[in-house]
Amino acid sequence: MKYQIVKGLTGSSVKYTCDGCQTDLRSPLADAGKKDTCPTCRAELIVPGAKELERRKRLQARKEQAKAEAKERKQREREEQKQLAIAAEQEKRRQDEVRLMQEIEAANAMKQNLRQALDDVSFNLVDHDWSSGAPWVYECVEMGTLSFAWNEELSRIINRKAQEGWEYFRSESLVASRPAGCLGALFGGGPAFFNVVVLVFRRPAVIAKVERHYGVT
User: Fold this and answer.
1) HSE value, Cβ hemisphere, 13 Å, CA-based, for 127
2) Predicted confidence band at 191 (pLDDT cuts at 50, 70, 90)?
């Protein structure tokens, strides 16, 4: 039996002719290999195209298998990338921990060396060798504008500097000037003068020299 596979909007179909009455017939390709009846002579026949249908099924199966394999491959690659990212994060965390431990060990070693060096330092103002320089180093801290809580501010600054190893020496009251603002300058105004309280702290120069050697500010 001669037949022809044609494509349509709804899919492929088989065009063939009834052997009994030569009527042109057409059936969906999906019915290939199935029994059918000629609507004209009522003769029973087998819809041709079974080979083509089987070939298309195998092709479709291969396409679906390839699609499934591609999907599985992508999923496997995503999982591998995820595992690599986790491993990289764990390695980074491990390196950070190692680096932190090294920094702690280095800091402890520096503290130990500094402590030992400071233990070996002797400071006696009476026996100080003035040819080596001044016995003290000084640092000034501005208190800012005094308020009703000036005593709390003073205590806070002195205690903080004492924790840093500085001894309170004295305070100074200085006169500072501030340039006139844009509006004041426009009307010929001069600079504004105000008092500034500065606290002076000191520490032995030999100790400051040792601390600078070990990077302590």
Assistant:
1) 3
2) confident
Tens-digit pLDDT profile for residues 97-119: 999 999 898 888 877 877 776 67
- The rounded percent of the chain whose pLDDT value lies above 70 is 84
Tokens of 39: 């609507």
Report the distance separating Cα 57 and Cα 30, nearest Å.
Answer: 10
Residue 46 vs residues 5, 16, 33, 93: alpha-carbon distances, Å: 15, 11, 6, 72
Residues in the chain: 217
What's the rounded Cα separation, in Å, for the pair 46 and 32?
8
User: Residue ranges per domain, the chain?
Assistant: 3-48, 130-213
What backbone phi and psi angles, to 5 degrees, belong to 41? -105, 0
Instruction: Enter the pTM of the model.
Output: 0.41
Please, what sign has the CA dihedral across residues 86, 89, 91, 94?
negative
CB 114 within 8 A of CB 182: no
Tokens (6 digits) for 197: 């309280």
- State pLDDT tens for residues 134-175: 788 889 998 865 556 777 888 889 999 998 888 899 988 888
pLDDT bracket for residue 182 (50, 70, 90): low
CA distance 41 to 201: 122
Q: b/e map of 22-42 (b: 16 or more CB within 10 Å)?
A: eeebebbbbbbeeeeebeeee
**Torsion 153-154-157-158 (CA) sign:** negative
